Task: structure prediction
Amino acid sequence: MSELHKFIFEGLPVRGMLVRLTDAWQDILARRAANSETGAYPAPVRQLLGEMAAAGVLMQGNIKFNGALVLQIFGDGPVKLGVVEVQPDLGLRATCTQVGEVADDATLSQMVNVHNEGRCAITLDPQDRLPGQQPYQGVVPLFGDRGEKLENISEVLEHYMLQSEQLDTVLVLAADDKVAAGLLIQRLPIEGEGNLAGKADSLMRESVLGQSEDFSRISILTKSLKREELLGLDAETILHRLYWEEPLARFEPLMGETGPRFACRCNRERVGQMIRSLGTEEVEGIIAEQGQVEVGCDFCGAQYRFDPVDAAGLFTGLPADVPGGSVH
Ligand SMILES: [Zn+2]
Result:
């Protein structure tokens, strides 16, 4: 069962989260494998999308926000787009668009940053968005501070969190064909810390330095977690192995109904809106050619078919999903 574990280090300004996606991740992979047009993801793409899925759950779990967190990677190589969307109730979906061959040992930059134009975007889309209100979006390049291409999505997201939230973050991610998992440690802001430089309060300075050492020590422990351990061990074992000497306080894990799980939000009405946005001419052209309009959902694989009557209904405002819509 997929699960999200939250914890704090008592008395220290550090919090953390561990996510393990099992059934939710396997569901996403199985739906992709069942798509006869695309087939299953190659291993490097699977790893990228799985790590993004784990990170998306951690980032959604980390904010108090009533809306979707959408993590996207826009690639300039064979992988054009990776999308992970996580709702406030931890329902999640994910998909990747691949157009070219991906070698078995392809790196992140070989997939999405071949011409230095790949980037990553994090969008917070409020649930009850007011008319005209834009979702908040942050975009980060796939380069490190010294201009080097980043090869781990975890480093890209650490940069993002430092930039956007001003919070030191350590992120360890891994994914294979069974599990997508992640561990996040974040240093919490200390009251007044921002003004510290201008203050002569040496006692406060010392205490902040002390707390900063706590974060460094916990960071080092966190970074020592190996990919195989993150994928293969259960949450109890990982947390005990890393932090057994630390004052760890855990919250009730989120799993099952309240935990991360696959959930697609597509429906016939939204697909109808999308078709309507193509315009009458375009839609009539498709019907002339194919006899109907068929749209597949990239996230869950659902197929939506609109025959000529359904399609015409989209433009006249008649219910498109009731056969012979005007019959009472
Ligand atoms: Zn769907």
Remarks:
- Residues 264, 266, 297, 299-300, 302 surround zinc ion (CB under 6 Å).
- Confidence is low (pLDDT under 50) at residues 193-200, 322-328.
- The two ends are 46 Å apart (CA to CA).
- Residues 83 and 251 are 29 Å apart (CA to CA).
